[in-house]
Amino acid sequence: MKKLQTVFICIVLAAFIVPSALMLFGFKNANRENRPLAKLPELVGEDGPNTEFASEFDDYVDDHFALREYLVTAFNAADIALLRDFNGTNAVIGKSNHIFYAESVNDYLGTDQLTEKQIESVANYLFDLQTRLGEKGASFAFMTAPNKASIYPEYMPDYLKPTENAHNIDMLAEALKAKGVNYIDAKALLLEAKEKRTVYYEHDSHWNNYGAMLVYNEIADHFGLEKYDAEVYTTVFDRTGDLHNFVYPSTEYPEERIVYPEFHKYSSRRPINMDRDRKTETTCDADTHTMVVLHDSFGKSLQPILSQSAGKLYMNSSFPYNVDYVESAEPDMVLIELVERNLDLLYEHAASLGY
Description:
By secondary structure, the protein is α/β, with parallel strands linked by helices.
């Protein structure tokens, strides 16, 4: 018994001492998570002593302690293997090797959804925005990117039991259609398409490139842009998803990535990095239209396709939306894409404007 206690104590001490020693010698972890890591805080800032130093330093150590990725992976793997569950804050382990984003659970369950009055406020805001842009000569459309759980509910764990409550994405779709706001129904499209082929990644919260191409063709239908054959592609296995990096950050999980041919050449002022750039601008000779797309992370996979289709394309991931920025581009097409789990933020923005 004493030997086991000694071994346990040695393991615990090693878990503290080894990472600390490696940090002192300059060891740095690779950042595979889809978020910026905490920066080393200063004791004294421009305005005097930093009263938040202790908590900021704690955040820094949490993000940067040596071997963090390996220890987190080992802990999470043991948690899942032994308890058949996962207590992480960012992800939910589903069936058949699927991982879901934890922030989408309330939508899946139908809890903490917007009220009918709040949905009406969002619809009124988007109707007025469509009217304002229409007066400037721009065609408008709004699209909600469905949470993965809305497309693949069959892979959610059994311990999560959905209610019969109405969901934000469905309530808003009905309200916008009733109001006359142009709505691109990506949920209906992808639910039908998944019967033919996978449209979301297993270890990622986003649609794959096949799903993105199908969604693009719906966008093209609305705005009169060129459509492309979604069935002509090659595949490579080189993509590790954002949710995999939350759960198993020290390992790779190469998933199939669909690669479409280049349809038309486009150019940009500088190399595009959708993980870094809040604003991107591209030009292409394939078309004469000017398009503005306000988007979130689901827009990243649409960018290469849209850039080959619109003569001028302005993409902006800033939120809340800046209508003056949109109008300054003098577009004749405006698309807003927003993921389902953030529809409550759109309501808060509309409410702040008096809707």
